[in-house]
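HUMAN:
Sorry, I am quite new to this. Are you able to go through these amino acid letters and fold codes? The numbers rather puzzle me.
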Amino acid sequence: SNLRLSSQTTNVYLVLMLLSTFIATLGLFGNSSPVIIGAMILAPLMAPIISLSMGVLRQDQSLILNSSKTIGWGILLGYLCAIILTWLTPLNISNDEILARVRPNLLDLGIAVASGIAGAYASAKTEISKTLAGVAIAVALVPPLAVSGIGIGWMDWDIFRGAFLLFFTNLAGMVMAAAITFLLLGFSPFRLARRGLVY
């Protein structure tokens, strides 16, 4: 029931997504790790991602559709925010924080997988703070989303491709890891989960 609620697109979700991307983009331009961390804490992406993983695991079409819509709206809003800020900002030099998110590697994927496990486990255990899982999820998603938006704003397709690849593989890794975690915790029989996990 909680995951079904989390899969819905709400005004609060959209506002937090806009603000987190706004802060992350400015932090990236300012080459400031503390500001980027602040954006990660604010990001609301954990809830619909974990809902999507449960939908995939249990082959729940409504949960998959609603979660995907919510994630999609968040991504679109994040891109619009990052692109507009890039156009308004006179800076056009790639700094360390930006370049760190355009060369994805297996370490980044490992972070995403661990974040997905943490998000699913926290959702399954009511005694664990959801905020901690939200921070873990956001670590691997908001900054590359903002960097890929910056790449579009600069018309620099190398930056866009690298950051988008990082964002997309992290998202897929989180959904897969969270779904497997839910499976191991007993939320679905393997015969039902197999198709979604293979996909």
About this structure: The radius of gyration is 16 Å. The mean pLDDT is 89. Residues 21 and 105 are 23 Å apart (CA to CA). The chain is about 80% helix and 0% strand.
